[in-house]
Specification:
Elements (H helix, E strand, L loop, with lengths): L15 E4 L2 H4 L11 E6 L2 E10 L10 E10 L3 E9 L2 H20 L3 H24 L2 E8 L2 E6 L5 H19 L5 E3 L6 E3 L19
Antiparallel strand pairs: 1-2, 2-3, 3-4, 3-7, 5-6, 6-7, 8-9
Amino acid sequence: MKYNYKNLFASQHEKFMAILGQDYFSSLLIDDDLSDSAVIISDRRVYQVGKLYEAGLRIHGGGLRTNRGKKIVSLEDVTGTTCKEITKPLPGSLLVFVGLIAAILGLLSDVTESMIIMLIIAALLIAAGVFLIIKLRKRYLIIEYAGGSIAQPVKFITDTELNLFQGIISVEKERLMSGAGDLKECPNCGEKIQISAKICRYCGETQKEIAAE
């Protein structure tokens, strides 16, 4: 499957490393279809494209704000990754609360038929409330960086994929911080040389000029 990076990476020299949820999100990079959300790692940066999830103070209150666009974060600025479950408990909690009130009113009723009806209504409301609380609970991968964070829904992502993706972020950051990000492969011998080198120090092959970013 061929990805379209023409308008994605900040630099023409970046190398694609991973996309979160290879099977589920891979179509997002074909024909510039960014109607959903995806997180992509290059050898220099982390990109979130499509639907952006703002993970600020509201992450603890249940629910995230969303907008569309592209967020770019240097791997050097990434401070850590974690998975969190975020829920919107208010709608479900209100139904449970109303259901409890209905149950109390039913038990206080002197009319048997009214009591039965109220208890049935209470049971339905409580069941619907619990269902909403569970239904509105979502899991997100949080990528923390200096100045903010990226939140990506991972409902259909396995733990194995998540662990691998977080590992790639860590490895690529370490590689970049060590200075390996300033190297390129000589097309003739495959050895790593400085990205600005005009001649390979291993095989002597003349390197093509790199266009200015």
